[in-house]
Write a structure and sequence with these properties.
The chain is built from 9 helices and 15 strands. By secondary structure, the chain is α/β, with parallel strands linked by helices. The chain has 2 domains: 114 residues, Nucleotidyltransferase, domain 5, CATH 3.30.420.40; 143 residues, Nucleotidyltransferase, domain 5. A 5-stranded mixed β-sheet has the order 3-2-1-4-8, with helices on both faces. Strands 11-10-9-14-15 form a 5-stranded mixed β-sheet. A 3-stranded antiparallel β-sheet has the order 5-6-7. Helix 6 packs across helix 7. 40% of the residues are buried.
């Protein structure tokens, strides 16, 4: 049995995972604003004690930033101001006496998604893109995470794009900048609102530009779109795929590519348990 933990700016999610399934889980609000490093570690440890059992053999943790995955050091977590350099693996191994692995949250999500494919249908190269408040990207090659030298192999969201960065056009920020709340936009699109449908159509083209870069960079045979915005795929998928067909130069690669939608909220925790 493994304990998987997904650390976010809004919530901390915990799950005991056995044979790829969550057997017990809960979530709590993330660290209070202004909390010191020690206060956050005390809070995290207290939540772990609520769920950990003697049968738990290891802990896996996903965090929304770059990580020294070998030493388990977390750097510059944007939504947790006190987490500038956190020796998380060392701290928790001393606290609980079992091995701890730490990785980027999008990488953990990617492992969780990879585990959903049956043994006879595993992707050779899987890229998982999480679409939410920001954009995350994880790469799994032949069943193993590809993280890069600094756990930054998937940070394509920072690429320059139309005077800003591509994340601003493929995340919740794009919807907000167009004057929409995500839930309201989805409802309006379902009701046939032309403005909402046009907004999602534009979003799809921008997402297509990101997928174009993903295809050139990693040559995947499978891309999975995850996160809250992925629920709206029926409204942006057509324009996204049209952009790829128009701009990607290698038609045969597109014939092999499959784009899946994966919105299971348990996968970040399950994936963390797998790292």
């Amino acid at each position: 049995m493994t304990l998987g933990i997904d650390i976010g700016g809004t919530n901390l999610c915990f799950g005991l995972v056995e044979a790829g399934k969550i057997v017990q889980a809960f979530s709590v609000p993330s660290f209070p604003p202004g909390a010191s490093l020690q206060q956050t570690l005390d809070y995290l440890s207290a939540q772990i004690r609520r769920i950990i059992r003697p049968e738990v053999k290891r802990i896996g943790i996903g965090v929304p930033t770059v990580v020294d995955i070998h030493r388990g050091i977390v750097y510059d977590t944007l939504n947790i101001p006190s987490w500038k350099e956190v020796h998380l693996k060392e701290y928790l191994e001393k606290e609980f006496g079992i091995p701890v692995a730490v990785n980027n949250d999008a990488n953990c999500f990617a492992m969780g998604v990879y585990g959903t494919y049956p043994a006879d249908d595993k992707p050779e190269v899987l890229v998982v893109i999480t679409l939410g408040t920001g954009v995350g990207l994880g790469i799994v090659h032949e069943g193993k995470l590809f993280c890069g030298a600094n756990c930054g192999a998937g940070e394509l969201c920072a690429l320059p794009y139309e005077g800003s960065i591509i994340e601003d056009f493929t995340s919740k920020k794009f919807l907000t900048d167009q004057g929409w709340d995500g839930v309201e936009a989805a409802k309006a699109a379902r009701e046939g609102n032309l403005d909402a449908l046009a907004m999602f159509d534009a979003f799809g083209r921008h997402l297509g530009a990101l997928l174009h870069t993903v295809m050139l960079a990693y040559d995947p045979d499978r891309i999975a779109l995850a996160g809250g915005i992925a629920n709206n795929a029926p409204f942006f998928r057509s324009s996204m795929e049209a952009y790829l067909r128009e701009h990607f130069p290698y038609a045969k690669a597109l014939e092999r590519l499959r784009i899946d939608i994966c919105t299971d909220g348990d996968l970040p925790v399950i994936g963390a348990s797998m790292i």
